[in-house]
Amino acid sequence: MLIKTKSGRDLKLPTDEEDAAINAGIAADPDTFELTDKEFRRLKPPGRPKADVTKNRITIRLSREVTEHFRATGKGWQTRIDEVLKEYVKTKY
Q: Which residues, in sequence order, are bridge partners of residue 2?
């Protein structure tokens, strides 16, 4: 059976026989187990937890020199710009 995803991709679902073979293989594997309903409900959602203090999403135009400098410092460069601006606010106000 083919189904179409929201993005337009076609996915081929396994037949009932293929699905039964897959489940039998999983059941036969000693390193796997099925979670109970109680265990399944206790799982945490994937991804980063919600922050207590969130930031405002804005658009700001910065000079090329500034963005190149901070991007060259690697991952987290936008956070470092935020830290520099917070330090400026502390010293000026």
A: 12
